[in-house]
Here is the input.
Amino acid sequence: MRQMLKHSFEAVSLLTTTNGMLDVTIIPALDQPDWLVPSSLILAVDEYREYASIYEWQQQKIAVFHMLPSHQTPDKIVVLEGNTSAHRIALQTLGEVRQLQARISDVKDVELPEHFIKSNSNIATVSEHVQEEVVLSYLFQTVMIDDTLYLVPDLDKIAHQLVDVDG
Here is the structure.
């Protein structure tokens, strides 16, 4: 059995600031609030209209986390940097990926509303790799900015589960 080398992929350190502002990118999600990821982690946003479990990017095979069920056709794939090249992941989604700059003081921690926490959620089909059934399985924090809910995903957990499954 090979030893898993855990990297230090701490979400707090990824939210880099400039003059009290956060530079984040909004990734559209289905049956859950859109995701916020640090813009500095995004390596590419490519048009991609096939449901895929592996994405080849710059001659590297990258595990894909699906943000929509397999019966829906995605239109984008977002490649995120990992702590190592093996821990890069791609998010497959449908919709506009957009950037947001927000004041730190405008970001409010909130609880995830109950209707997103359901055991028979479509989230179970979102990724064949992450075998947990609810949004809470990869949630780092729920936040509100300008009266809009967003999820800050636990990218560390997702990357490690995808790498463990795909080898």
